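To the wet lab folks,

You asked to see what we're planning to order before we commit. Fair enough. Below is the target structure as tokens, and below that is the sequence we designed to fit it. If anything looks off to you, flag it before the synthesis order goes out.
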């Protein structure tokens, strides 16, 4: 078994997020932050509430407080708060909808973003590009990423995150050298700006590149570094994705028991978050290490979810797997 984790189980991580106690450096528990936001709403301090939630939204989302965020955000009268705060709330809402698989609602939120701040507009364009990529519209994704890059400075952390996504787009087209170059630039920016979250994401993608090249040891090293950060900040969505990636490595080695263990940890978190795409991906992965009726069940569920999401290429790959037995 891998040894680079903090020792947290999926159940432990979920329990901590539900209690609002994330880590020693987190300060006030999230449950207390939510209570403060609700108190501001009760006192009709809309602008103060919007400013508070804007600063805490990412933390709440990482820990799985999706319903609470949407509920408080919906109670804020956007006409009574600064445009930049209203736009930041729309970005947060889009993040939740994207995780839950409601990509159309996420798109609508992002298209409503209207801010004088270039970084906020760039963030919205970047997220729209990610949604386009998920829906197999590579041309739109490339366009959105280019427009977003034009709005950010050469050394800003957001630039690194966008370049990471550009690398993913290149990887999807089989352009490994181009993907490597973009990832290297994204990694440099993340390191120089001390963007731990950005560094976590690019190292996850470097792990995928290494796995594709057959270098399992390097892939595990990258995944381990990314998981260390993801667990430290209780980013349950990313932890779920990375556990799935580790499961893929074990599956490729023929170690079914370890693959099932990591897929199980990933699924526990994904179901907690209603992380639809990851749940679908896990069913597809589980179909690769199961047989008969069990395999058919996983493929059927994966196809149902990918189709619902509008992830056409993923749905097509599942249909190909179904055809393998004909």
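Sequence we intend to order:
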């Amino acid at each position: 078994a891998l040894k680079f984790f903090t020792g947290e189980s999926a159940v432990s991580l979920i329990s901590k997020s539900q209690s609002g106690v994330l880590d020693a450096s987190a300060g006030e528990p999230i449950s207390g932050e939510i209570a403060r936001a609700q108190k501001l709403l009760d006192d009709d301090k809309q602008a103060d509430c919007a400013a508070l939630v804007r600063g805490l939204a990412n933390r709440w989302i990482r820990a799985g407080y999706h319903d609470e965020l949407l509920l408080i955000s919906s109670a804020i009268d956007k006409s009574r708060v600064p445009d930049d705060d209203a736009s930041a709330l729309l970005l947060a809402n889009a993040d939740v909808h994207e995780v839950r698989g409601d990509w159309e609602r996420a798109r609508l939120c992002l298209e409503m973003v209207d801010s004088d701040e270039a970084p906020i507009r760039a963030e919205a364009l970047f997220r729209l590009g990610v949604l386009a990529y998920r829906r197999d519209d590579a041309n739109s994704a490339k366009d959105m990423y280019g427009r977003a890059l034009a709005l950010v400075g050469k050394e800003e952390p957001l630039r690194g995150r966008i370049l990471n996504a550009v690398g993913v787009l290149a990887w999807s087209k089989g352009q490994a050298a181009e993907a490597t170059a973009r990832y290297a630039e994204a990694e440099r920016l993340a390191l120089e700006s001390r963007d731990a979250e950005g560094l976590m994401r690019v190292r996850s993608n470097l792990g995928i590149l290494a796995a594709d090249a057959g270098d399992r040891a390097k892939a595990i090293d990258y995944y381990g570094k990314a998981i260390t950060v993801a667990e430290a900040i209780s980013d349950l969505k990313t932890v779920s994705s990375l556990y799935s990636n580790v499961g893929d490595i074990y599956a490729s080695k023929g170690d079914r028991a370890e693959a099932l263990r990591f897929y199980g940890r990933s699924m526990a978190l994904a179901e907690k978050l209603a992380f639809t795409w990851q749940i679908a991906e896990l069913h597809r992965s589980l179909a690769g290490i199961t047989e008969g009726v069990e395999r058919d069940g996983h493929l059927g569920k994966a196809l149902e979810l990918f189709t619902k999401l509008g992830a056409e290429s993923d749905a097509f790959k599942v249909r190909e797997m179904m055809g393998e037995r004909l």
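Structural context that might help your review: Residues 1-26 have pLDDT under 50 and may be disordered. The two ends are 36 Å apart (CA to CA).

Thanks,
Computational group
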